[in-house]
């Protein structure tokens, strides 16, 4: 990162003279963006924020008392940093929580396995030989009632590692729908290989998919990749494998969660909103540093740097710390509902929720009129080691989905996610995994993008006839 | 490793012509050693052995039923591979075992920590604010009775990473003697930062030191590096930290352990022994792949390749799978006692117990007369990427210590231990951490060294007057 920083400083000067030829973004605005980047690269603010969140609050399961403490922390942070408006916007949600779990191999010999209940898992004490399924598809093909009283085990494969996280969707099927077929076939418990790209003995938790609003009655347990490898080798040796699973987990009625909304109010078009953010909840196993303390920290820090400028940008910058992302984008849905009357005023939205590694690509899905502005942003942030990607790529982070579905334009600063799924939803998602310099590069890119999007008068939204709206 | 293999093949040819000029090792012997190396680099035998041990036996705590299964496995392996003599040599030992543990931070908020009892820990349920000690020396300086009923926490620092494992000794003081000072000061429990170079949420177990034959009455728990970091940050923030520790662990009387001894009997001097080996026991948290399934596999495979030659070497090659290493070199001490009358016949001894990474250096501590032979071995194995180190360096692995103290000459094939203490004594010490190519390089080096040491008629031992004996 030191190299990038040094390179950046040199290239900013060169880029500045080029920038003066562009439209939609004034030379002054581009120069301000470059100054923001320089400031961001030297700033510890984002690291301090994620250190504070993970240390002072710790794990913050959606709907828990810890998540409530996190909201208070977020609101206090917003006040302290001088945001113009600070709101905690509550919503209710069903609360799932885990208690104790033990999962032990009892045959061919006794060995404790490293497992965790998946989100939505039921409770139960089961002792049985396992029925081995090489893939989730094999379990999908199991006949109704064929697993009566048994423990099903879906092996699958270690998640494929990729910069863009492309391995997640395919691997995630066993976590998402495995339980539905295990229950249909009569199994008393389901054990699955974790959805993760690491080879450490950490299980990866995460939410299952509901089935028409209902959830698993049986325990559904993810075991670490090395544990799954171990079971596979024993199975391939022809050994009969028995497990004992004792899981206590389940639903506990409705509780309150909430989003924390921090605004830097625009000087000319305060009703127009550039929305950024991350999610405040984390899984309970780690302290949620890369998922998603980093996203909260990056976006708050970027907005704060902009707030420190001599004047507010034209448009409002809104940082949302979404609640209850992990359990089904509940905060994001609540936000879209609670802000239904101003959704059309959201000119651009993006979330940071893919770890804390360096951003390497800028992609977007905005109006034809707005695309050259994002192109220009791309030129401004290029010295940070970021290339311009597709200009017609939907997406902006999970919590942006409800807004995007309502037509809000999105942009994405894509982080290198090569090791994100090593840590994702494990106990190992802790502060030490964050490189302060990489985090600062993120803040620099966000600060430039968000400032320019808020300062330009170009419109990223489409009108019904496909041209830029006003 | 593919590069090293290819390089090796070319360089063997070159080295061969040089080798013909050397003394003590005949050109034929050197040629045979090079053939053994080529065979070893292409062989999967060592990997198959460590896969079998870790998969079919699993964790194998010293003195446990699992360690007994491992001895049966070792003896059956020796028979199957055609060793000339296979013995299981029993001894008795006191048995320490852990049962359940929970360690939870209860203030400033609730969070489960990742901990494990240290070997020799007592049982107890304690709830208390912690007294923070920056280093073990600070606890050593605590006054008698000053910690009455409290939980002491030794922070210390993450173990320094090094190729030769030099960080282990200094870091290990808190694990070794911390409890003695915690008890002296009246603490009800001791928590220490794990002795490990990783930043994963795995605690590292390991034996404490006894105090004149007595062991801890209180629970002594190691927490992972990220957990210790977390406590340090909270402490530095001025927070009062409370923990709840519930540990069940302790001593359970005398049990039987044993060493497995496999001999390739020498054709000319069967009474002279070149001893190699590893330890069969492992800590209970992982499956003991790098500590020390690898060492067992490397040395058994090397001996087996030599046994496959048309004729036995001059001297006997003995592979010892030592029992109960982790709890105080008990197998090694038993071996030295039980073989007291033939200790003087051990012409050279070395153990592989430092992981499964590439060997990079050959060091030795043998007679003046024997040193040129080891030098020549160094030239033969140099194409494997191994340099010749000191020729007066004591050591040959932990289980060799009792023999070395009785005057048995030692040699060491030093592995790259840079990440050994990432895995050491953690649940994460599993088969997937072993690279088959790196393991094969170890076998190649051992096969060449052991063959040449068993085939030469040079003596590595010193006579009382300091010249070579015999
Ligand atoms: Zn997330
Ligand atoms: Zn997540
Ligand atoms: Zn060892
Ligand atoms: Zn060890």
From TrEMBL, chains A, B:
<keyword id="KW-0325">Glycoprotein</keyword>
<keyword id="KW-0862">Zinc</keyword>
<dbReference type="GO" id="GO:0005576">
    <property type="term" value="C:extracellular region"/>
</dbReference>
<keyword id="KW-0121">Carboxypeptidase</keyword>
<keyword id="KW-0645">Protease</keyword>
<dbReference type="GO" id="GO:0006508">
    <property type="term" value="P:proteolysis"/>
</dbReference>
<dbReference type="GO" id="GO:0005764">
    <property type="term" value="C:lysosome"/>
</dbReference>
<dbReference type="Pfam" id="PF04389">
    <property type="entry name" value="Peptidase_M28"/>
</dbReference>
<feature type="domain" description="Peptidase M28">
    <location>
        <begin position="259"/>
        <end position="448"/>
    </location>
</feature>
<keyword id="KW-0964">Secreted</keyword>
<dbReference type="GO" id="GO:0046872">
    <property type="term" value="F:metal ion binding"/>
</dbReference>
<keyword id="KW-0378">Hydrolase</keyword>
<keyword id="KW-0479">Metal-binding</keyword>
<keyword id="KW-0732">Signal</keyword>
<keyword id="KW-0458">Lysosome</keyword>
<dbReference type="GO" id="GO:0004177">
    <property type="term" value="F:aminopeptidase activity"/>
</dbReference>
<dbReference type="InterPro" id="IPR007484">
    <property type="entry name" value="Peptidase_M28"/>
</dbReference>
<dbReference type="InterPro" id="IPR039866">
    <property type="entry name" value="CPQ"/>
</dbReference>
<dbReference type="GO" id="GO:0070573">
    <property type="term" value="F:metallodipeptidase activity"/>
</dbReference>
<keyword id="KW-0031">Aminopeptidase</keyword>
<comment type="subunit">
    <text>Homodimer. The monomeric form is inactive while the homodimer is active.</text>
</comment>
<protein>
    <recommendedName>
        <fullName>Carboxypeptidase Q</fullName>
    </recommendedName>
</protein>
<keyword id="KW-0256">Endoplasmic reticulum</keyword>
<dbReference type="GO" id="GO:0004180">
    <property type="term" value="F:carboxypeptidase activity"/>
</dbReference>
<keyword id="KW-0865">Zymogen</keyword>
<keyword id="KW-0333">Golgi apparatus</keyword>
<keyword id="KW-0482">Metalloprotease</keyword>
């Amino acid at each position: 990162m030191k190299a990038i920083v040094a390179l950046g400083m040199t290239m900013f000067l060169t880029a500045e003279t080029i920038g003066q030829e562009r439209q939609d973004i004034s030379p002054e605005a581009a120069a301000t963006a470059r100054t923001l980047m320089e400031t961001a690269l030297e700033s510890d603010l984002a690291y301090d924020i994620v250190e504070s969140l993970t240390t002072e609050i710790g794990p913050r399961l959606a709907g828990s008392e810890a998540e409530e403490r996190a909201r208070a922390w977020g609101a206090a942070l917003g006040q302290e940093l001088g945001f113009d408006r600070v709101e905690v916007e509550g919503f209710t949600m069903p609360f799932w929580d885990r208690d104790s779990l033990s999962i032990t191999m009892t045959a061919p010999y006794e060995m404790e396995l490293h497992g965790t209940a998946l989100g939505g898992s039921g409770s139960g004490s089961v002792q049985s030989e396992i029925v081995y399924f090489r893939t989730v598809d094999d379990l999908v093909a199991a006949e109704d009632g064929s697993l009566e009283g048994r423990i099903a085990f879906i092996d699958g494969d270690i998640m494929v590692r990729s910069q863009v996280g492309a391995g997640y969707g395919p691997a995630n099927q066993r976590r998402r729908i495995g339980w539905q077929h295990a229950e249909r076939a009569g199994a008393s418990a389901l054990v699955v290989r974790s959805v993760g790209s690491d080879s450490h003995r950490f299980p990866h938790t995460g939410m299952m998919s509901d089935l028409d609003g209902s959830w698993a009655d049986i325990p559904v347990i993810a075991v670490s990749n090395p544990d799954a490898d171990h079971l596979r080798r024993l199975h391939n040796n022809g050994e009969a494998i028995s497990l004992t699973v004792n899981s206590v987990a389940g639903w506990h009625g409705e509780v309150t969660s909430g989003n924390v909304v921090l605004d830097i109010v625009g000087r000319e078009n305060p009703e127009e909103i550039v929305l950024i953010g991350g999610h405040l909840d984390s899984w309970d196993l780690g302290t949620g540093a890369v998922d998603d303390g980093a996203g909260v920290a990056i976006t708050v820090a970027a907005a704060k740097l902009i707030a420190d400028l001599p004047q507010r940008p034209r448009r409002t910058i809104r940082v949302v710390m979404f609640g209850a992302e992990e359990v089904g984008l509940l905060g994001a849905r609540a936000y879209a509902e609670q802000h239904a009357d101003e959704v059309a005023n959201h000119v651009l939205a993006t979330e940071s929720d893919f770890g804390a590694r360096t951003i390497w690509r800028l992609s977007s899905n905005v109006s034809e009129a707005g695309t050259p502005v994002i192109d220009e942003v791309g030129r401004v942030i290029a010295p940070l080691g970021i290339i311009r990607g597709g200009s017609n790529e939907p997406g902006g982070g999970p919590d942006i989905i409800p807004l995007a579905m309502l037509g809000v334009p999105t942009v994405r600063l894509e982080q290198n996610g090569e090791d994100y799924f090593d840590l994702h939803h494990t106990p190992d998602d802790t502060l030490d995994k964050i490189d302060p310099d990489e985090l600062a590069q993120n803040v620099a890119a966000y600060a430039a993008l968000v400032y320019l999007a808020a300062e330009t008068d170009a419109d990223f939204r489409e009108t019904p006839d496909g041209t830029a709206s006003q």
